[in-house]
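User: Predict the structure for this protein chain, please.
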Amino acid sequence: MKIRKKDIKEIVKEKYSRIAQQTKKENETSCCGSGGCCEVDYTIFSENYEKIKGYNPDADLGLGCGIPTQFAGIKKGDTVLDLGSGAGNDCFIARAIVGETGKVMGLDFSETMLEKARENVKKLGFTNVEFVKGDIEEMPVPSDAIDVVVSNCVLNLVPDKKKAFSEIYRVLKKNGRFSISDVVIKGILPRGLKDDAVMYAGCVSGAIPKEEYIEIIRQSGFKSAIVNKEKEIDLPEELLRKYLNESEMSEFKNKSTGIFSITVTASK
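Assistant: Here is the predicted structure, written as structure tokens:
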């Protein structure tokens, strides 16, 4: 199924709204439940948060590809913005760092995810964590208002990454910084992977080359872009065979093409 750019956001919104209704355990077996409407196990990208201060199992759907707060340099009293906040996992980790004097805002465009996140914050009783509906390409956030932006496996789903990083730059205070975990590629993805809606919502076909990703950050005005962590993502062979022919499979196995998660930081 070849996807048009204008349809991408609706595809992502639909998939993640369904995922929001499941637990992390359910997402490990089927991203859309027992009906099996898609083939990607989203938790193949995720990291283990269980020993991190502020962790809330109810907010962890296993949808990340790193731990962006680990490299964010968040301080007590900071104002933190989490892009694509989902059920609130990284927001609650950030809140444990900023404390009572700080503020955490989660931005998401899925109403179902926002409802889940708001239920979680209500249970926790936090008064300085809020979840706001909005588009990363046009954030409902004032300019120069945020100390730290974090995001976890979300910007690869945004069609216009230049616009997204431009918005991140706009909302950050002077000397503000971001820490983003995301999916990038090495080489050129075969057309089968690149054009499929399921693989887009699964963080794969929306990914761009690592060098291009870093260059967009630099062109957006950020300084000191550093890749703090990188790991290769191994997609199951049975999944790849649905999209690749024998020659393309051989290229994957020979590492001429690869999919990686990175955590990158930069400052304004």
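The chain has a mean pLDDT of 83.
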